[in-house]
Amino acid sequence: MLMSMSLHHDDDLDPIARVDSAPAPTCDHTTGCITCGDVAIPLTVLRLDEGRGLALCADDDGNSETVETDLVAPVAQGDRLLVHAGTAIARLT
């Protein structure tokens, strides 16, 4: 069965026009991750394993996790990173 589609030239229906006029998305720890809607968490670098691109990081409550740092390298002890799903996605100032 063939289905017909009608094309609309109305800017309200044009996805490109909507994207061009929309504000650029951002990612920060107060609003969450723009990619999947999940939360990104600010962590502090405690120790580095530069050879493997990893850092041991901790949150403000002292909970620690290993984080991949290649996307924001170079990283130093004491740096604050925004982390999502075990990967540093931004550097915090």
Question: Would you write up a description of this structure?
Answer:
This protein has 93 residues and is mainly beta. It has one domain (27-92): Roll (SH3 type barrels), CATH 2.30.30. It is built from one helix and five strands; from the N terminus they run H-E-E-E-E-E. The chain has one helix at 15-21, and strands at residues 41-49, 54-58, 64-68, 80-84, 87-92. The protein has a five-stranded antiparallel β-sheet with strand order 3-2-1-4-5, with no helix packed on it. A hairpin with a 5-residue loop joins strand 2 and strand 3. The chain starts with 14 loop residues before the first helix and ends with a strand. The relative contact order is 0.19. Residues 1-11 have low confidence and may be disordered.
